Amino acid sequence: MTDCYTLLKSAIQTRRRGRPLLLFLDYDGTLVEIASRPELARPTPELIELLSRLTARTDLKVMVISGRPLWELQEMLPVPGLDFLGSHGGEAFISPCLHPLQVVASDKDELFHWRNRLVAKLQAFPGWWVEDKPLGFALHYRHLPEEYLLEFFAILDKWQEQVRSEERFQLLAGKKVLEMLPQGTSKGAAIHKILSLPTFSGYFPIYLGDDITDESAFHILQGQGLTIKVGRPGTKTAASHFLPDPEAVRLFLSFLAFPPDEIE
Question: Which of 25, 29, 120, 229 would bridge 210 by S-S if both were Cys, CB 3.0 to 4.6 A apart?
Answer without folding.
Answer: 29
